[in-house]
Every structure is written in structure tokens, then in C-alpha cells.
């Protein structure tokens, strides 16, 4: 699992600060160690020089071997043993023979005295010191050894060799290194806690908020975030994110508007295409219907006249019954011809203002008196005064009667026929709803096509709704249908109207 931003930053900063503090602390300890070592070397060298001078003043005898027995020399030599850091000393004569010596703990393995020490009368120094960066390693055996020729006149009477221990200095250095490490750990812990808090408040939380907001944008939720208080870069990033979200929201709104405009244009194109096809089809059917109506109407009128004349001369009841049936069938043909003519050639264009609810109720009364709604229960929910329309009154009656009879035919076993009206301020709607068999989606698409019918053969011509649609369209309105198989149908006639008579 990949570490988070906070973990990586805190660990990196802690390691860098710890390394820097540790290096600085150890470097300071080393510099202090070097200074203390130089100071101790200087003090020890001075001490050895003073002892050498004292021994030189006290040595008047030619035989240095007798100096160890002189009472005046013993305090000087004994004083070396009282030094805190002296671990061993010895006095040699000119031929490097032992005159006197003293060791603190164990016999010391003195360094070899260089021959030049006697001739040159100089102080020779040998430093054995090693240090370590690891404060937990054992303290090494560090020491410094001095070789000091002494005597009077111009010649050396003997050699003083002194070894000083540097263990105390090494222990102090190790102790300081441990303190530095403890200080680094404590200071690093405090810095880590403070860094975690500061980083979490100023960086991690704003970044997480931006991450969540980015995920929301990817999911389609264009919500801006509050600009957090913190570093300028984070604040600038949050402001840039909000600008991006605002631009995306604006772009999406514009895209939706373009899509809606394209959909509306597409619907308009489809409607125009359908209207054009319907107009071409209706024009073709109209010309054909008009021609057929005229060609059939004239012979039919002659046949009806001949049948009426023949009816007057017949006395046989059976013959008269057959003649009556013939006249009924010719009336059907005549009705078909009139419908063809109504479809082909619009009727009177004389218009008047009237309340469509009153005309709808008159149409219901008219067909009820004719006994055409015997098994149908009419529920009238219309409200008077909703508005008036302006069109040919007779054509509107024709539309109402056609819709009422279609609703009746859709309920062969009877049912409820519901009437209602509505208005949207510009159009007045008349709604005729039945509880019939309903229509399939295919039937709904073709219900206004000429000669399309869902009725049984011989019970409908398929011109009624086509004529109604043409009448309503000529008046500036439209007819809409909603239906579902087994749940009835609802026809709504929308006509432009006004709210005042």
C-alpha cells in the first residue's frame, strides 16, 4: 500500500531534520573535544616542562642514580603521582637506565625514548587518541606520553618520561554524544508532532477536500468547495478548482441548452416531415375522394330515385322489405360519399364565438335522444366559463359527435364516458375519456391516418378522426391521444381561445 502524502512528508522532514541535528550535534561535540584535547595537551606539556625544570635545578650531581635518594628530589618526583591524570612516570639516566618509576594501576608499557631526546634537549610528545561517532561503543584506552630531558649546564643529566590518561576526556565526549542523541530524539519528536498537526491542517485536509471534490466532479457533481485557510499555493489551487467547476457548470448548461435546442429542432423537423407526408397523402386521398364521390354520387342518386319510385308501385310485403334494405344500404353509401366530400373539400368557413362546453353538452344530448348511448354512463366534469373559442360551430359539433361515438364503440359492453375541460391560458382543451379496450402503440401512431380503423369491417370507414383532425387543424388547434391496451383511451382537443365572451 502506497504511503500517503502526510506520511511521506513527515518521515522525510523528520529524517532530514534528525540527520541535520545529529550531524550538527556530533560536529559540535567533535569541535569541543578537539578544543579540550588541545587545552589538556598544553596544560600537560606545561606541567612536564615545569617538572623537568625543577629536576634540572635539583640535579647537581654527575651521577643521576644518586638523585633518587636525595630528600630534596623526592617531593618533586612524588608530586607526579598526585596528578589526577598521571598513570605512570619514570626517570632514566643518560644511558637509559632506570633511576625511579611509579605506575598507578598496572606496569606501564612506556614508549621507546628516541635518542635525539637526550641530545636535543627537547620535549617529545606521543599522542594515542581515537574517537568514535558511536557513543555506545566502549571507551578506548587513550593517553599522551611526554619525554622531557633535564639537567643543568648544557648537557642532559637524565630523562623524565610521563604518561597521562585521556580516559576522562573520552568519557566526557561519549556522555556529550549520548546527550546529543537524546536531544535529537526529543526535539525530533516535538518537531514531528508539530509538523503532523501543521501539515494535516494546512495541506492534507485541503488536499483531501480537493480530492473528494474532484471525485464528485468525475461523477457529475459540479459543486464548488470552500477556499481553505492555509498556504497560498493550496488557496490558489482551491480557487482554480472552483473556477474550473464554474466553467464546467456553465459549459454543461450551454451544452444542455444546445441539446434541448437540437432536440426541439429535431422534433420540429420530424413534425414538419410528418405534416408534409400527411398533407401529401391527404391531398392525394382528397383528390381521389372528391373524384370518386362525384362519380359515385350521380349514379347513386339515380338509383335512390328509381328505388323510391319502385317502392310506390310494389304491394308485395317481401318485395317492399327487400327494397327497404336496399335503401338502407344506399344510405350507407351516401354517408360514405358525404364523409369523402367533407374530407376532400372543407365545409363552411363561417366562424363564431361560443363556449365549447355548451356545444359538447348539446352534442351529448343529441346522440342520447337518438338512443346511441344506451349502455354508456356519461360523467360530466366540465366547468362552464373556462373560455370561448372561435370556429365553425357545425364543424365543432361534428368533431364532438365523432369523438363521443368512437368512445361508445370502444366500450361494446358499456362503461363510463368521462367529459372534462381545461385551459392553459392560451388554449382550451376538451377531454373525452372512455373505459374501452384501448389501443396499441402502433394503432396510436396511425389513428389519424385516412381509412385506418380498429373497428370490425363494415362498421367504420376510417375517415372520422382524419376529418376531425383536419377540422381542428384548420381552426388552429390539435388533437392528442393517450391510450394503453386494456385501460381505455383519452382524446384531448386543444383549440385557441380566450377567457371572455
Low-confidence stretches: 66-73
Could you name the CATH class of the domain at 5-187? Alpha Beta
Order of helices and strands: HHEEHEEEHHHEHEEHEEHHEE
Outline the biggest β-sheet: 7 strands, mixed
* CATH topology grouping of the domain at 5-187: Beta-Lactamase
What is the radius of gyration computed over CA atoms, rounded to a whole number of angstroms? Answer: 63 Å
Distance between the termini: 80 Å
- Helices, by number, come to 10
Question: How does the helix and strand content classify structurally?
Answer: alpha+beta
**Shape field:** rod-shaped
Helix content: 55-70%
Q: What is the level-2 CATH architecture name of the domain at 5-187? A: 2-Layer Sandwich
Residue-averaged pLDDT: 75
Q: CATH superfamily name of the domain at 5-187?
A: PAS domain
Strand tally is 12
Beta-strand share of residues: 15-25%
Question: How does this structure look, described?
Answer:
Strands 6, 7, 8, 9, 10, 11 and 12 form a seven-stranded mixed β-sheet that branches. A five-stranded antiparallel β-sheet has the order 2-1-5-4-3, covered by helices on one side. It is 55% helix and 16% strand. The two termini are 80 Å apart. By secondary structure, it is α+β, with helices and mostly antiparallel strands.
